[in-house]
Each structure stands twice: as structure tokens, then as C-alpha cells.
Design goal:
alpha/beta; 2-enoyl-CoA Hydratase, Chain A, domain 1; six-stranded mixed beta sheet; 11 helices; 17% strand
Length: 241
């Protein structure tokens, strides 16, 4: 599950429990509910920032394969997988239309859909001493939903980096992710990475941006993924006129 803590203008959303944080219907619904409540609070508190992190060795190991494979038949397993692929879409959509800056803090591994969840944030901050980014689908012989690739094209500018991550199954550590332009920064230790994220969060919060404008500009920055997730842009306005 997850918890939300407010520290000044920072909302800290934490995936709780010392496990792999598999993205199953229960966890995804828990995150969705937290984001919905947070969105309402953020509109009443201009200059807020979301920091998403986790407890334990993993940020998230992706869609819950053990739960999928525990189904009673191959057909039932496919239905579970398709259900989660559809359920994951509104979670990403909620993050992309959130009216505040977002930072993913990775204290450990982010694999498959867990990496997609991290990339959906505006900034990604990693540990330099532990944890990797990893798309495991090729090694599992699995294909990818169209919106996974659209997000990757939106967030990973280099085609050679996308090739290495998706077609070589490269496991990318923190400092390498920074050099590749995937992560904002990498820091030593659990405390170091969270302290860096809080510093960045406070810098962003100090700008006191208009939330509606921030969300609309974000959506216009990533039109392909937003289109696939059903997000539409609103009429252009200037809040200070």
C-alpha cells in the first residue's frame, strides 16, 4: 500500500512495506486514491510538490507477475495481465495531469512497469550505491503496451539509450542514468537521495507556480503519451491577466 505525509509544501507519497512493491490492483488503487486526495489538496495550496518514494530494496518491480501467474488458467492469467495494463493507464494519467511538479526518488530497483511509473514523474533521483533501472520484458519474452513506448520516447531523448534499455535489457545504475539523461541526479545512501530530492522539491515549491498552467504545459510537452492516456489540453489562458 502507500502513505502520504505533508512536510510544508512537500507531499511525500511512500510505497510502504519492505517488499518488491508489485503493481497489482490493490496497490494501484491505493496510489490512485492518494493522488486524487493530494490533487484536491494541492489546488488549495499553490507551490506544492509531490515526492514519490518507497521502503525497502525496490522502488517497484513492475506489474505483479506472481499474482498473474497464480491464476487458475492461461486464459485467466491473460485476463489479469490485460486488466492491470488497463488499470495502470489512469494512474499514469493522474500523475501527468497533477497540477504540481513531481519527483520520483528511487532508493532501489525500478523495473518494467516500476520504471514506467518512475519515468512518469517530472524528475527522477536515484541512489548511486544501490538500485538499477531495468526493462525486463525482452528477457521475459513479453511485448510492451503502446503507452509504455510512447512514454519512453517522451522521457528518454536519445534513441541509442532507448535501444540499450529496451533492446539490450541494460541494467542502468544511478550515475550512468544521469549521464544518459534519464535521471536528474544520483546520491549515496537512502538519506542522501531523499535529502537531494527534498532540496529539489523546495527549490521547485519556491517558484509558487500556477497549478493549472503547470499541468497544461506538461500535457502539451508530451502529446503522444497524453493522447494514448485520454488526456486533452484545455483552452490557453494567462492566470495573471
Amino acid at each position: 500500500m502507500c502513505s502520504v505525509e505533508k512536510r510544508g509544501k512537500l507531499f511525500i507519497l511512500t510505497l510502504t512495506g519492505d517488499n518488491e512493491h508489485w503493481l497489482n490492483p490493490s496497490l494501484m488503487n491505493s496510489i490512485l486514491n492518494a493522488l486524487s486526495q493530494l490533487k484536491a489538496e494541492a489546488r488549495a495550496s499553490p507551490g506544492s510538490v509531490l515526492i514519490t518514494t518507497s521502503q525497502g530494496k525496490f522502488f517497484s518491480n513492475g506489474l505483479d507477475l506472481p499474482w498473474i501467474l497464480s491464476a487458475s488458467s492461461l486464459s485467466a492469467a491473460r485476463n489479469r495481465l490485460n486488466h492491470m495494463i488497463q488499470l495502470f493507464k489512469p494512474l499514469l494519467a493522474q500523475l501527468l495531469c497533477l497540477p504540481i511538479p513531481t519527483i520520483a526518488v528511487l532508493p532501489g530497483h525500478a523495473a518494467a512497469a516500476g520504471l514506467v511509473l518512475a519515468l512518469t514523474h517530472d524528475y527522477l533521483v536515484m541512489r548511486s550505491d544501490r538500485g538499477v533501472l531495468y526493462m525486463s520484458e525482452l528477457d521475459l519474452g513479453a511485448t510492451l503496451p503502446d503507452y509504455f513506448m510512447a512514454l519512453a520516447k517522451s522521457k528518454i531523448g536519445s534513441s541509442s539509450v532507448r535501444r540499450d534499455v529496451f533492446l539490450r535489457g541494460m541494467k542502468v545504475r544511478g550515475e550512468t542514468a544521469v549521464k544518459m539523461g534519464v535521471a536528474e541526479s544520483a546520491h549515496h545512501g537512502e538519506d542522501g537521495v531523499m535529502e537531494a530530492a527534498v532540496r529539489l522539491g523546495k527549490e521547485l515549491a519556491a517558484r509558487n507556480w500556477n497549478g493549472n498552467a503547470y499541468a497544461e504545459i506538461r500535457k502539451s510537452l508530451y502529446p503522444e503519451i497524453c493522447g494514448l492516456l485520454g488526456l486533452t489540453s484545455k483552452v490557453i489562458t494567462i492566470s495573471k491577466l
